[in-house]
Amino acid sequence: MKKRVSVVGLVVIVALAVVSLSSIASADEIKMVGVITKIDIAGKDAKTATVTLKDNKTEQSITLIVNDELTLDKFKDHRIVEGDEIRCKYEIRDGKNISTYFRKTAGC
Amino acid sequence: MKKAVIFLPLLASAFLVNPAMAKDHPGKEYIEKNGYQGPSTCEECHPDTAKKFLDTVHWKHASKVANVENIDPKQEYGMKNRIYTFCNGNDIVNNLKETPPNEKGKTKLTGCNTCHPGDPGDQLHGVGSSGPAAESSIDCLVCHSSDYDYSKRKPMKNEKGQVIMGQDRSVKAALAVGKPSVKNCMTCHETAGGGAYIKRGFVFTKENDVHAAKGMVCVDCHKTKDHKIPTGFDPNNWASDGSRLACADCHGNKPHKDAYINNHTARIACQTCHIPRTGGAFSKDFTTWTKMADGFYEPTTLKKEANETTPAYAWFNGTVANTPHFIGPKGSRKDKKSKIYPFKIYQAKAFYNKVNGQLLSMDFAQPMATGNTLAGVASAAKTLGIKKYEPVAGWQTIYFASSHLVTKTKAFSCENCHAPNGVLNFKALGYTDKEVIKLTNPSIFFTDFVKKQKEKEEW
């Protein structure tokens, strides 16, 4: 009985830790630099876009949701296109990567 | 005759057009019928415009400069040929070209006009070029179309292997012509200097500028005549189309309801209270470039977001001190033409010529590919015909005028400046100790402020 209680207690503690850690991760802003491999935007009136970037460091693909008007406008008129290198920040909200900063790295 | 046949119906249609169609460009039908061939199409209704455009700063990137010391007033200066540490290169040494291969064997098409294609041509004819070929290369639509496909405006090689800038000359873009929008201007101006908001550190959005919040666009203040665009005085920005603008052009010299605030306008520029923030790059190192993930290098840059930093304040009478290590405002309290203005202070490290103390220019192709900045100096020296030089690192300070990010609600109030350790360093600005004591005490605004506070509380 005592053993069962301690196992249940351990499970609860682990579960709480996971929940608490994931909520910390959700609140954190993640930074990355990567190259755009895909832009999905539905027409000129679109209020959101889904962009896939290949992380320069890890080479993993990350999909971001972009909602800010200025960046959406740059997708629409192709000032930002596939192949552009982007410096971005994003937050995880409801399991989605929401962009909070999205700029071309640009050089001289 | 042919032009008249085309022009008269277009003119008539411009006057007869019904209000619902008022936004349509009168040349819409002509373009739909004949397609868009570039400036020659525009000139059907706007004759001689292309030729005149070649005489503007947007084409030449230079003009004669009368307000800067230590330069030849008979010569033209601007991004075309200046050597200073915001860019360290210019259109001459950094014309569009292909870099040598980097360590990954990749090359880049690069040059000043890949960052800020301010010269709306195809670049094949060069900044400041003239003649029919130059006229026909102007990209009218990059400034005038609201439906421009910017993916076409990029450096590419033509069939002869020459590096040119592409253009969107589609009928779709041509049918969307009109007065330049904020986007048309900011496409180039927000990315000048190597990235978003780097150079001037401002954004022109409703959140950041009271004029933008009112729906104004750039050319509402920068009112253009024959493509000549007025600008304010800026220690860093030398070339001008000969016309100037100032806040007072619209707001007058007594813009406030309160006389005691209006008393400031004689010696305090509007910008000083109404532009309390600045941003962008505040330092660069051109002697050591930073390697990027793609294997190419960029000048090492320290930067802040637009609106993230505070300006410095100095007297400015519109003339500019210009030495190899300092470019900044001239003026003083004694000089009655001077006012106190806000500036973004920028400092950068670059190579100087030990032989004559002058700043050396840099071709970016070599350092961009390999990080070898001295190879860039050598290439630029060769282009400019400088045979005797010895590069040594040194620093230059530049004052940038701060003329955007205008705010009404967050403007400085009396207590921001008239307090010990306030925004303005009165002592450094030339005031005596006795005056500083007076200027930094509430007694000078107390009575008026009480009145104002009471008015606020009464509503």
Key descriptive features of the protein:
A: 108 residues, alpha+beta, OB fold (Dihydrolipoamide Acetyltransferase, E2P), five-stranded antiparallel beta sheet, 5 strands, B: alpha+beta, two-stranded antiparallel ribbon, globular
How would you characterize this protein structure?
The complex is a heterodimer of chains A (108) and B (459). Chain A has 108 residues and is an alpha+beta fold. Chain A has a domain at 30-104: OB fold (Dihydrolipoamide Acetyltransferase, E2P) (Beta Barrel), CATH 2.40.50.140. Chain A contains two helices and five strands, in the order αβββαββ. Chain A has helices at residues 2-27, 69-76, and strands at 29-41, 49-55, 61-66, 85-93, 96-104. A five-stranded antiparallel beta sheet of chain A has the order 3-2-1-4-5. With 459 residues, chain B is α+β, with helices and mostly antiparallel strands. Chain B has helices at residues 2-16, 28-34, 39-42, 49-53, 57-60, 112-115, 132-136, 140-144, 171-174, 182-189, 210-213, 218-221, 248-251, 259-262, 270-274, 365-370, 373-384, 414-417, 433-439, 446-458; strands at residues 63-64, 76-77, 97-98, 109-110, 155-157, 163-165, 278-291, 297-309, 312-316, 320-323, 326-329, 339-353, 391-401. The N and C termini of chain B lie far apart (68 Å).
